[in-house]
Write a structure and sequence with these properties.
By secondary structure, the chain is of the alpha+beta class. It has one domain (2-12, 39-151): RutC-like (60s Ribosomal Protein L30, Chain: A). The protein has three helices and seven strands; from the N terminus they run H-E-E-E-E-H-E-H-E-E. It has helices spanning 2-9, 59-81, 106-121; strands at 27-30, 33-36, 42-43, 46-47, 87-98, 128-134, 143-151. The strands form two sheets. The protein has a five-stranded mixed sheet, with helices on one face. Strands 3-4 form a two-stranded antiparallel ribbon. Helix 2 packs across helix 3. The longest helix has 23 residues, at 59-81. The radius of gyration is 14 Å and the shape is globular. The relative contact order is 0.25.
């Protein structure tokens, strides 16, 4: 429960994983790895950040959306493996940012997730990452994140 306590100490809450929006599961374990489905900035079933970053939302809003999406990835993993303390390291984040064609700061938005995972996991939170701009995401979400983690 050390990881979950660290999340609380940082001032965040780890809720139950959001329910899938379609025909998929939130997380799959394969060997020593877990892979999450794309997680949106949902809190209590409500989408907190709607629209495009750089048009409808600020970069700071995008970073907050990325933090929530990252926490939802961790919730999905917890639902799959039971305890987050089983995570050895975070391997990769893929961060999709809904943004207009002339917005080029997807990496800044993705830092919301990357910086939080580093605070939570320290050295074991260093990860590979892709930050991808897209015109739209499911239910008009601002951000969607997929995570790959290695287990102990």
């Amino acid at each position: 429960m050390l990881i979950e306590q660290k999340i609380k100490d940082l001032g965040y809450e780890l809720a139950d994983a959001p329910k899938p929006l379609a025909a998929y599961v939130p997380c799959v374990k394969s060997g020593n790895f877990v892979f999450t489905a794309g997680q949106l900035p949902l809190v209590g079933g409500e989408l907190k950040y709607v629209g495009q970053v750089g048009k409808d939302l600020s970069e700071e809003d995008g970073k907050k959306a990325a933090e929530i999406s990252l926490l939802n990835c961790l919730s999905a993993i917890k639902g799959c493996i039971g305890e987050l303390d089983q995570i050895k390291r975070i391997v990769k984040l893929t961060v999709f940012v809904s943004s207009p064609a002339d917005f080029y700061k997807q990496p800044v938005v993705a830092n919301g997730a990357s910086e939080l995972v580093l605070k939570i996991f320290g050295e074991n939170g260093k990860h590979a990452r892709s930050a991808v701009g897209v015109p739209s995401l499911p239910i008009n979400a601002a951000v969607e994140i997929e995570m790959v983690a290695e287990l102990k």
